[in-house]
Each structure stands twice: as C-alpha cells, then as structure tokens.
C-alpha cells in the first residue's frame, strides 16, 4: 500500500508541474492569414480570378487576352 501511495504522489506532482509549465509557457504566435484578393468574373467564360490578374475593358473583366478580344459571351453584357 505504501508503494502505491508513493507512486500516486509522484504522478500527481509531475502532472501539476506539467500543467503549471503549460500555463506559464507563452502561446505560439498565430500566423496572420493574408487578406484574400478581390475576385472578379470573366465576362466571356465566367471563371473567377483575382482582380490583380484580370484584364479590364469597358467595366468588364476578362481572364485572358483572347477572351478580352472576343468580348462578353453572347446574351450577356
């Protein structure tokens, strides 16, 4: 019975020390997630892409030079 009591106290003290260190340890710095770039929709094919990569003409956005030259899809403006 004495050995069990000794092991119990050792485990209890180790758990308390572990818990205390965990509380005192500074939390890991959280990585800041970069803000998402504004997205636009290609007027020809409908693909969404970042505005920084899109081409603009007449308030319309396009995903490529070919789609810019073809213009908006028929039925859309």
From TrEMBL:
Keywords per UniProt: Membrane, Transmembrane, Transmembrane helix
Superkingdom as given in the UniProt entry: Bacteria
Family annotation (InterPro entries): PP0621-like
Residue intervals passing through the bilayer: 6-23
Claim: Transmembrane helix is one of the keywords in the record: yes
Protein name per Swiss-Prot or TrEMBL: PP0621 family protein
Organism name: Azotobacter bryophylli
Lineage: Bacteria, Pseudomonadati, Pseudomonadota, Gammaproteobacteria, Pseudomonadales
């Amino acid at each position: 019975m004495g050995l069990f009591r000794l092991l119990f106290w050792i485990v209890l003290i180790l758990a308390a020390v572990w818990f205390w260190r965990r509380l005192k340890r500074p939390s890991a710095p959280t990585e800041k997630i970069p803000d998402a770039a504004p997205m636009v929709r290609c007027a020809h094919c409908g693909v969404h892409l970042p505005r920084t990569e899109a081409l603009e003409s007449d308030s319309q956005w396009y995903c490529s030079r070919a789609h810019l030259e073809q213009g908006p899809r028929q039925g859309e403006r």
